[in-house]
Every structure is written in structure tokens, then in C-alpha cells.
């Protein structure tokens, strides 16, 4: 139930888009290697999911 509510949260796509934009800027501006870019994507998307889940859990209290 919590996962479904987290995925349906309207702010999650904006957070994921922000992490994609950060990886894109890192690639174009700093010419970062692929390992750094994929690391940024992984950490950014994971953080977006965790932040949205924690926000929804705190809203219920």
C-alpha cells in the first residue's frame, strides 16, 4: 500500500526529473565518465523515492 501511494505521488516525477537533469548537466558541463553519471542517476532516483515515501509517512501522522 505504501509503495503504491509513493509511486502515485505527484511530486515524484519532478524529483526524478531533477536527478536526470543533474546527471545530464554533469555529463555536458563537466564531461564526467559514465560511472559518475550512472551513480548520480542511481543515487538521485533512490533518494527521490525515499524522500517521497518519508514525506507520505509523515503526512499520515
Task: Jot down its keywords.
mainly alpha; single chain; elongated; 61 residues
Set down the secondary structure blueprint.
Layout: H1 2-7, H2 12-30, H3 34-60
Fraction of residues in helices? over 70%
Overall number of strands? 0
Mean pLDDT: 92
- Secondary-structure element pattern, one letter each: HHH
**Tally of DSSP helical segments:** 3
Please state the overall shape, judged from the principal axes of the Cα atoms.
elongated
Explain what this protein looks like in three dimensions:
- The mean pLDDT is 92.
- 85% of the residues lie in helices and 0% in strands.
- It has helices spanning 2-7, 12-30, 34-60.
- Helix 2 packs antiparallel against helix 3.
- The protein is built from 3 helices and no strands.
Q: What's the quick description here?
A:
The protein is an all-alpha fold and 61 residues long.
Amino acid at each position: 500500500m505504501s509503495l503504491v501511494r509513493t509511486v502515485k505521488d505527484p511530486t515524484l516525477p519532478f524529483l526524478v526529473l531533477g536527478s536526470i537533469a543533474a546527471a545530464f548537466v554533469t555529463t555536458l558541463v563537466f564531461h564526467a565518465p559514465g560511472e559518475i553519471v550512472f551513480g548520480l542517476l542511481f543515487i538521485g532516483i533512490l533518494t527521490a523515492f525515499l524522500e517521497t515515501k518519508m514525506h507520505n509517512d509523515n503526512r499520515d501522522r
